[in-house]
Amino acid sequence: MSSPPAKKPKLSLPPPPATDGGESDDDLDTDTKLGILSSLFSLVEHEVLLEVLITAEGSLETAQKILGGGGAMEAAPQNSKRGIASSSGAQASLSSYLPAATSSSSTINTSNTSNTNNTNNNNGISSLMPRPQKGKPLLLFKPEHVAALTPCTLITGFLQGEVANELLLELVREAQGFVKKGSREVRFVLWGKEVWSRHTSALYVRGEGVEGEGGGYVEEGEDVWYTYSGMKEQKKRVFTERMERVTELVEEKVREVISERISPPIPLEMGRKKYESPHPWKTNAAIVNCYDGGAESVGWHADQVTYLGPMTTIASVSLGVGREFGLKRQSAAEGEEDGVVKVWLPHNSLLIMEAGTQEEWKHCIYPAPSVSTHPLSGSKRINITYRYYRPSLAPKYLPRCKCEPEPLPGVLRAVMDKRSGNYGRYFWSCQGAYQGRGESGEGCGWFEWAEWDAEGEVKGWRERRKEEREKETGWGRMGVAKRVESDGGEGSLQR
Ligand SMILES: O=C(O)CCC(=O)C(=O)O
Ligand SMILES: [Fe+2]
């Protein structure tokens, strides 16, 4: 269901005020200032501009700085003027997928614990840090503010304008087929609580696919349906060629961000060094989300780390209508808006949720009272979250609970209570508890500390894989003399 596009404020614009300190903007009234901002940032909702103006204490100059100088917020057609784009269908070199000059990005994370209003921190942040207001989430637009206050990195103007536009158009077309069993609503149950996701989404796998697909698959006639996060069911979709080319750029950028990070986004004692993969970041699957209008949103949640592993990094590309992405610590009380941060995700931006974000924070896409219309996608926003499903964490290799008659693969979580001596330790529990199953809503109540091998993979997975293969080939059961390899090895889909 899409809400009507926001009316653009009527403009009769005075000349923009001088921003070199020559002329003050004190004598302009708020409507005029909003009109000026609106003409400069035509795709940003009126409410957002107002919020920025308030944060900037009425200063047009500061508001413009917060909004990032215009380029990042603007419609894709403006961006597409930069550089040479490939015409649709024509193969372009990877570099032609990136904007001529990389726009705003801050690839260095500072400690996210300081919420100060410093004007110049060790990151060289010279723009004003937005001030938290009591009871109101802080809205961030600038990559350096996101880097300083959250465990994420924001890169705006990520792709060359025309590439972003083409990908947006392709995925809007793809998303027409996302309707799930006649419903446009997806329900997650997390720890007994319902999270309604009023948007449509689909899981895409890269190339050959992922061992276990993060949730296993079932075949129904010609169709192969995948589940992920243990709850959703989707038909198999494979990265399109265009997605594949963009994915290579995403991987390159994520590796750069990870290597340039100075201080970890989460405390070291939580074991980032211990658990984070020593291999360069890569992705083998993505969830493509489509939000049509401001009413479509996704509630507070953290992405399940069961199949991705501890300290996973997730990269998220946003296209089309800009929306607010919420971030709050897991420990924040329900309904408590203090300490909640909103990040504005404009068209053609890349948000990297770094190691620890899924363990220590929750995220959401806020519903919006209205959205500005995007010239190409109307009221729609497309989001692609790139993940790496670890072959060692395929459901069939996971420790199992004690549920009768069929024990189920466990759910992986971390102890997040800092007062606990086990802070940062991972454990397995029954997925029935995660989904609120059983009389008590706790499943079978099974709990086990997670143990890891020297390579940082879940202990015993190779043995379990061997057993699984033996079962599949009949080697162990039937005492067949010759072992038949059942699949193409790690990372490939077992059929
Ligand atoms: O749409 C977004 O930016 C976030 C989507 C998300 O949280 C998810 O797919 O898990
Ligand atoms: Fe998520």
UniProtKB/TrEMBL annotation:
<keyword id="KW-0863">Zinc-finger</keyword>
<dbReference type="InterPro" id="IPR037151">
    <property type="entry name" value="AlkB-like_sf"/>
</dbReference>
<protein>
    <submittedName>
        <fullName>Uncharacterized protein</fullName>
    </submittedName>
</protein>
<keyword id="KW-0479">Metal-binding</keyword>
<dbReference type="Pfam" id="PF13532">
    <property type="entry name" value="2OG-FeII_Oxy_2"/>
</dbReference>
<feature type="compositionally biased region" description="Low complexity">
    <location>
        <begin position="103"/>
        <end position="127"/>
    </location>
</feature>
<keyword id="KW-0862">Zinc</keyword>
<feature type="region of interest" description="Disordered">
    <location>
        <begin position="460"/>
        <end position="495"/>
    </location>
</feature>
<dbReference type="GO" id="GO:0008270">
    <property type="term" value="F:zinc ion binding"/>
</dbReference>
<feature type="region of interest" description="Disordered">
    <location>
        <begin position="1"/>
        <end position="30"/>
    </location>
</feature>
<dbReference type="InterPro" id="IPR032854">
    <property type="entry name" value="ALKBH3"/>
</dbReference>
<dbReference type="InterPro" id="IPR005123">
    <property type="entry name" value="Oxoglu/Fe-dep_dioxygenase_dom"/>
</dbReference>
<feature type="domain" description="GRF-type">
    <location>
        <begin position="401"/>
        <end position="453"/>
    </location>
</feature>
<dbReference type="InterPro" id="IPR010666">
    <property type="entry name" value="Znf_GRF"/>
</dbReference>
<feature type="domain" description="Fe2OG dioxygenase">
    <location>
        <begin position="282"/>
        <end position="390"/>
    </location>
</feature>
<feature type="compositionally biased region" description="Basic and acidic residues">
    <location>
        <begin position="460"/>
        <end position="474"/>
    </location>
</feature>
<dbReference type="GO" id="GO:0051213">
    <property type="term" value="F:dioxygenase activity"/>
</dbReference>
<dbReference type="InterPro" id="IPR027450">
    <property type="entry name" value="AlkB-like"/>
</dbReference>
<feature type="region of interest" description="Disordered">
    <location>
        <begin position="103"/>
        <end position="129"/>
    </location>
</feature>
<dbReference type="GO" id="GO:0006307">
    <property type="term" value="P:DNA alkylation repair"/>
</dbReference>
